[in-house]
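User: I'm preparing a small set of examples for a lab meeting where we compare how different chains pack in three dimensions. I only have the primary sequence for this one, and I'd like the structure in token form so I can line it up with the others. Please keep the answer compact; I'll paste it straight into my notes.
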Amino acid sequence: MFSEDCVLPCVFEAVGDAIIYWFRQNVLIHSYKQGSSLLDQHYNNRTALFTEVISSGNASLHIQKSGPQDRGKYRCLVTSSRKTSEHFILVKVEAPIHSVSLETTRLSGFEEVICSTRDVYPAPRVTLFTEPAVLPDALQPFTRKTADKQDRYSVESKIRKLEDLTYICLVQSFYRSQTWRTSLQEKEISSIEGQGLNISCAAPWKLQNFTLTWSFTKGHESSTVYTYDSLTQLSSSVWKDKVRLVTPRGQGGDGSLQFLIPLRLEHAGLYTCILSALRTKHEVRTRVNITPSNAKRQSESSTQWWIPATVITGLAVSAVAAIVTIKCKVGCSKSSQTHVEAAEMRPIRVTDANSGAASEDTCLTEEIANRTA
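Assistant: Understood. Below is the structure token output for the 373-residue chain.
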């Protein structure tokens, strides 16, 4: 294993005067004779023998922090006055696959599906494809491999994202000691409020000893709503009486979820299903739209018709009231003006100083003057 210690076994018949030689690709890297060792400078003191057991016939070589430079064919040669023994060992160094990622992105200006793994040695084989199968020209596949300073590889494979497809990525180690499988599906479905709803989530492969996790995202909030462990057969749900598995115990890796009575305001949103097993992962992201039932739509439709009618009626009443108010104000203004004119036209009675009677001639003169003016 990459960066781990490695022991190369070599056993011989102990006679007391053994000389030990270790070669890599026919180059001497370590030797031992009568209690002293000779080391190859290229190994920076990373090699050692178990000196306390040499007398028992054990000439195994200990290599510290193995890396790519330690790969190859090794030869253990032990000579003595009685016998010569030789052993050959083929050493492979591997940084195993620890994880595989399968995601969607728009970095290239259009949607792509990218499968990647990192810190692997030697470079693994990455295969990205779809179900149903699509011609390569439509997917525009591309794979890139890069190595860091320690010669560990990061591998990325990507294809163009199309609708209604399941994307599957297989990552196999160079020595075929490991194979990782992961898949991704994105879809959108619609349902009617109050009617049963099934959200499918079945892995492309039959699974055993898997775990199932359903999460629900609405707006910016996400929460786990259902979990199941096929090994213990234990499940938990925040919607206990509202959801259940379509297939009892999720046999074969079918984690499809059934809603008994879906509600538009409560259950519409994004659902993510993850089926996980040893070196295997299947993920389904489902956007669920829930529309009102026919009775509710008719009720909402009637309400929507009544609202404009009520508004229009209110506006009409307000307009009539405004017109009446304006007419009233105009009428009152005219009435007031007529009253003023009548008051102005009323004869002015002037009392004679001698008789105390009003003079009609003076009144007439005032009226003629006003009219002339």
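A couple of notes for your slides: Confidence is low (pLDDT under 50) at residues 299-313, 319-373. The first helix runs from residue 136 to 139.

User: Perfect, thanks.
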